[in-house]
Amino acid sequence: NQVIDMAQSVPPGDIATQPGTKIVFNAPYDDKHTYHIKVTNSSARRIGWAFKTTNMKRLGVDPGSGVLDPKEAALIAVSCDAFAYGQEDTNNDRVTIEWTNTPDGAAKQFRREWFQGDGMVRRKNLPIEYNP
């Protein structure tokens, strides 16, 4: 008999990312690039968030997950390691942020389980554009 957590039965509210639609890296690609994204919790509830990338070898996200109180913001570093531009397929490169409401009364510490239960998870894709 599971107790349904009220916070997790409500769809998560909106987040804002700056930039809002995509991440752009500029050549040359013979060195590591780092781009900062600001993630703001626009909703009225505390959320847990986690980033995923389509290319773990090339793309890194630090920190990769966390917890944000309402109206709180975090600065996330997205890094792109050096690679052979034009010789590797970069068309599908993107980072995805997923977020969900944290259970009522939970400590402000990220837990992977929040994304594995019945709670609703929202996603936002940020495609990566590489300028030659």
TrEMBL record:
GO terms for biological process: oocyte maturation; positive regulation of smooth muscle contraction. Keywords: Cell projection, Cytoplasm, Cytoskeleton. Pfam families: Motile_Sperm. It is found in: Cell projection, Pseudopodium; Cytoplasm, Cytoskeleton. GO terms for cellular component: cytoskeleton; pseudopodium. The keyword Kinase does not apply. Residues 14-131 form the MSP domain. Gene3D superfamilies: Immunoglobulins. InterPro entries: Ig-like_fold, MSP_dom, Nematode_MSP, PapD-like_sf. Central component in molecular interactions underlying sperm crawling. Forms an extensive filament system that extends from sperm villipoda, along the leading edge of the pseudopod. This is Major sperm protein. It comes from Pristionchus fissidentatus. The lineage of its organism: Eukaryota, Metazoa, Ecdysozoa, Nematoda, Chromadorea.
